[in-house]
Amino acid sequence: MIWTFALLIAAAGIIYLSCETFVNGVEWLGRKLNITQTATGTILAAFGTALPESVVTLVAVAFGTDAAHKEIGVGAAIGGPLALSTVAYAVVGFALLATARRVGRARAAAVDADTRRLRRDQLWFLAIFVVKIGIGLVVFQFKPLLGIAFLAAYAFYCWKELSDDSGDEEDGIELEPLKLRPRDANPSMGWIALQVLGALAVIFFASHLFVQQISAVGPWLGLSPQLTALLFSPIATELPEIMNAIIWVRQGKERLALANISGAMMIQATIPTAFGLFFTPWHLGAPSILAATMTMLAILFLQWSFRAPQVKSRQLTYVGALYAVFAALLFVIPQ
């Protein structure tokens, strides 16, 4: 078990360092493609870091050899949004408060953000998420066809983000030199793509290592495989997004941190759901319904928190309590 914990810590460290390389590359990619900073976070960074867990979901539901594997895929599609809407936003809040000494207490307590855009994205997510959960409560034959609608919904979201130029005021942010070309003031697209893809590959394999160690820790703690999957796997698979948020907060790019989580939530609401509809009956049990309920409560809280032009850091930390409530209730509801 000591070796398991050592691998767990090592994998987390590798993910963090790889995410630093990834966010550096993806910012340059957004600059090269003439995409606003906010759209860089919601689309490029979110898609890149959400790709590994989306692939995991696809493999589980499409190539799983038994019903248990398919249930893991469905659970990941439900648990991912819960981890993002609670743990990820709470981590951003704590990271902001931790920077108080460096940036000043006033800025750490409340940061300027495009809250109008954040509220809009959360409402988009909530509408799609309610439909996705509603479909899982009923049984009918043409469910797989609805998977196409979820893919179309994400494509429409990307188009809206790319056509919204309200984030242009952030484009003057000075970028750090590309890590692969630290002395190049204007690196080529080839070097940028190499850094982004290379970092993603390392994140992918390190995330799988992290998930494997989490799976080993669960039985050691006396938890069933299902409880382990519902409690720890979502946090493990969303670790790249959480690491990205910490890195961007540390760099003073709070808008990018918030946009990355918001964009990742839209991916989790659509693409894994489409895979689940294509390859499984998509019928949700009590634990998944509990996770969905907590996710919707978190979104309602975030809508209230994003009502002002500034985001209050301490309010973001409160939303993490919903994940703790979910964990406690998970032990008392029928499995």
Automatic annotation (TrEMBL):
PANTHER family: INNER MEMBRANE PROTEIN YRBG, SODIUM/POTASSIUM/CALCIUM EXCHANGER. It comes from Paraburkholderia tropica. It holds the Pfam family Na_Ca_ex. This is Cation:H+ antiporter. The chain crosses the membrane at residues 43-64, 76-98, 123-142, 189-211, 257-279, 285-304, 316-333. GO terms for cellular component: plasma membrane. InterPro entries: K/Na/Ca-exchanger (IPR004481), NaCa_Exmemb (IPR004837), NCX_ion-bd_dom_sf (IPR044880). Residues 4-159, 193-332 form the Sodium/calcium exchanger membrane region domain. It comes from the Bacteria. One of its GO terms (biological process) is intracellular calcium ion homeostasis. GO terms for molecular function: calcium channel activity; calcium, potassium:sodium antiporter activity. It is found in: Membrane. It is a multi-pass membrane protein. Keywords: Membrane, Transmembrane, Transmembrane helix.
